[in-house]
């Protein structure tokens, strides 16, 4: 259960000995082996999600890349094809989808289902971080709307296909804190995963929460330059940063690792299952555990019900169905 623990014990920064996503695929002996599987990855034109798509590509699964711009999607596909030692034609497709628009989510789902009646892996990894106060096209706070609600609707619309393929609105305060919003949205992700597992685990649809760790991506685009410069001077902090290829490793391990098959409602970081945090410092980079409230079932149920209302799902996928 701690296959890669030793490699994460003494990190020294991006490109060190911690595994990459493609290495996980190799270790699982799945190069070219998933020809009968279909995957859907959000945010797949850049950063960690691009590396997730790259790793899934070498399994020879059919991979749909969720992108805001189809031209960028084609550029991402070209990058994957040009840098891979493996050539599997026609296994990568781009789907236009903006998670800040529920209409776009519905339209993209319809587009996907015209292309594939099968879906085995749904990897929800699109994110924004510490954005200025703003709203989605549907009027939701941006981080909660994109990180949680957009993914919530997308997953619910695709749950019937996942089953078939299986062997609270953010409250704006007087003083907006982008980090509070980010943390609440990430907590919503965990609640969503746990409740989805409770409702559909017995039907073969499982969801696991994972933390990819800090990677060198554009996620810091909303941070002020001084904060970024100060972080770069912190040698200990930077030693925990990963390359995007390494950042994608935990997601790929969750998706294809044999030891996680049939499991859900657990939390992974550094390619290992984590227990509750022992640290009182939320910025402690060495403690990858989850907060005490992360597995609160009543809160997860309540969030599911509120989210269903917010995105316009009427009593869909009731746990008794």
Distance between the termini: 34 Å
Helix content: 40-55%
CATH architecture: 3-Layer(aba) Sandwich
Q: What is the class in the CATH system? A: Alpha Beta
Note poorly predicted spans.
Answer: none
Which structural category do the helix and sheet elements fall into? alpha/beta
Overall tally of structural domains = 1
Number of helices: 11
Largest sheet: 4 strands, parallel
Q: Taking all residues together, what is the mean pLDDT?
A: 89
Give me the CATH fold name: Rossmann fold
Write the H/E string, N to C. Answer: HEHEHEHEHHEHHHHEEH
| Proportion of residues in extended strands | 5-15%
CATH superfamily (homologous) name: NAD(P)-binding Rossmann-like Domain
Gyration radius, to the nearest Å? 19 Å
Overall shape: it is globular
Keywords: Oxidoreductase
InterPro entries: NAD(P)-bd_dom_sf, SDR_fam
Family: Belongs to the short-chain dehydrogenases/reductases (SDR) family.
GO molecular function, one term: oxidoreductase activity
Architecture blueprint of SSEs:
Blueprint: H1 21-27, E1 38-42, H2 47-57, E2 62-67, H3 70-83, E3 92-96, H4 102-115, E4 121-123, H5 142-165, H6 178-200, E5 209-211, H7 225-233, H8 235-239, H9 244-247, H10 249-256, E6 267-269, E7 272-273, H11 297-311
Parallel strand pairs: 1-2, 1-4, 2-3, 5-6
Antiparallel strand pairs: 6-7
Helix pairs in contact: 1-2, 1-10, 4-5, 5-6, 5-11, 6-11
């Amino acid at each position: 259960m701690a296959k890669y623990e030793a490699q994460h014990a003494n990190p020294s920064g991006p490109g060190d000995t911690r595994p990459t996503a493609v290495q996980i695929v190799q270790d699982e002996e799945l190069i070219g082996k998933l020809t009968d599987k279909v995957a859907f990855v959000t945010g797949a034109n850049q950063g960690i999600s691009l590396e997730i798509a790259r790793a899934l590509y070498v399994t020879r699964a059919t991979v749909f890349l969720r992108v805001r711009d189809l031209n960028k999607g084609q550029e991402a596909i070209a990058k994957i094809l040009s840098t891979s030692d493996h050539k599997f034609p026609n296994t990568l497709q781009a789907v236009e989808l903006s998670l800040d628009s529920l209409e776009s989510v519905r339209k993209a789902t319809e587009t996907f289902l015209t292309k594939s009646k099968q879906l085995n892996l749904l990897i929800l990894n699109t994110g924004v971080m510490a954005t200025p106060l703003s709203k989605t096209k549907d009027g939701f706070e941006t981080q909660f709307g994109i990180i949680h609600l957009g993914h919530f609707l997308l997953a619910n619309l695709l749950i019937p296909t996942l089953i078939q393929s299986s062997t609270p609105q953010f409250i704006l305060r007087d003083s907006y804190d982008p980090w509070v919003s980010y943390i609440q949205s990430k907590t919503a992700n965990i609640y969503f995963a746990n409740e989805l597992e409770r409702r559909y685990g017995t039907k073969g649809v499982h969801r696991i929460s994972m933390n990819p760790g800090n990677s060198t991506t554009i996620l810091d685009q909303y941070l002020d330059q001084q904060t970024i410069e100060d972080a770069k001077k912190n040698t200990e902090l930077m030693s925990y940063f990963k390359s995007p290829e390494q950042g994608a490793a935990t997601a790929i391990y969750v998706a294809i690792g044999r030891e996680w098959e049939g499991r859900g409602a657990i939390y992974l970081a550094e390619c290992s299952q984590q227990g509750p945090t022992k640290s009182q410092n939320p910025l402690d980079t060495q403690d990858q555990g989850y907060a005490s409230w992360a597995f609160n079932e009543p809160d997860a149920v309540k969030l599911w019900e509120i989210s269903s209302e917010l995105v316009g799902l009427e009593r869909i996928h009731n746990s008794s169905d």
